[in-house]
Amino acid sequence: MVTPDRRPRIRRLVLGDFRSYPALDLPLSGAPVVLAGHNGAGKTNLLEALSFFTPGKGFRRAELADCARDAGGGGWAVSVEVEDAAREVAGVQLGTGLEPVGGPASRRCRIDRATVPSAKGFADYLRVVWLTPAMDGLFAGPAAERRRFLDRIVLTVDSEHGTRVSALERALRNRNRVLEEGRLSGRVDAAWAEAAEREVAALGVAVAAARHETVTRLAALIALHRDPSSPFPWADIMVVGGVEALVANHPALDAEDRYRAMLRDSRGRDAAAGRTSIGPHLSDLAVRHGPKDAEAARSSTGEQKALLVGLVLASARLVAAMSGIAPLVLLDEIAAHFDPLRRSALYAELAALGGHVFMTGADPALFADLVEAERFEVTPGAVRPGG
């Protein structure tokens, strides 16, 4: 089992005009947190608030303005106080939110009230992983969802990955625009196309290399912790894509040259289709149910849920191994569909991870076996001890 050097704890959560909360100031002990309440009470909103302490749009992937309370002023704020005994850090404040100031609203990030350029700065204090009901269809859904899942894992261990992915998306749009202009004029400007493809190739190889390395490390960690008796079956994973194959078999510069040649050769086809037909933007995360040696998508609903939990737990172990930080684990409605055996096994796995865990559920009885948990009852706009 991975033993992380650092196990940060959230000691205080403060919200202002976030979703259903006009204001909330919630002190925490550092024990696992159980948030119980009826559907629609605001439990998921609390986890979403915590998910903003990592680059990106949070686990709902909502537009920032949509997180503002309907009756508020258009902005919102979330802050946490983090205690990290290994670094002798007690009470460092991380804050983020949306400040509508004149023009378009923009997100702000602060560490101990000092502004930082982006949420990437939070990675020095917190790493965050999550599992939500929206992810239940991951294996049978479109490849784009699995790419997003994989990129989230990569981002949790490499805070620059999101920047590279965004830059690649812009570079692909630029190449598509150059090809479209060439299609309309009857002649593609070779110099412009080559410049666009040089940028796509460099960024594409960097994105593919980060994915390939992360999946390789994750697969090795899964193999190391493989337990045939676990109620959460191990996953056999690999990233599938033309550029990822190049990265796996060639040095980076050679992979760039080969990818650039592929882009050049596909200009006519891509111009007619209006899109780039090869690249990391089309890659997939292939997942198999390890013990059954079967495609995850062909497994039963219950098997897929258990397999997904096992994969998220493995990704949390990878984060701890690579960063030295036990991640903050956010589990939304996690226990409702598990029998008592799986629930007990889940709680044991979470304890072994060492990270601060936040879980939601409608029925507080589902968490009865969770020892030393801090329990709260969530009602619309309010959180109180109990539940």
UniProtKB/TrEMBL annotation:
UniProt KW Transmembrane helix keyword: no
Presence of keyword DNA repair: yes
Question: AAA+ ATPase domain: from which residue to which, for each copy?
Answer: 29-381
Q: Where in the cell is it found?
A: Cytoplasm
Question: Quick one: where is this thing mainly located?
Answer: cytoplasm
InterPro entries from the xrefs?
Answer: AAA+_ATPase, DNA-binding_RecF, DNA-binding_RecF_CS, P-loop_NTPase, RecF/RecN/SMC_N, RecF_2
Q: Which PROSITE patterns does the UniProt record give?
A: RECF_1
Which residues does ATP bind?
37-44
Q: Which Pfam families match?
A: SMC_N
One Gene Ontology cellular component term attached to this UniProt record is: cytoplasm
GO MF assignments: ATP binding; single-stranded DNA binding
HAMAP family from the UniProt entry: RecF
Q: Which family does it belong to?
A: Belongs to the RecF family.
Q: What is this protein called?
A: DNA replication and repair protein RecF
**What organism does the UniProt record list as the source?**
Lichenibacterium ramalinae
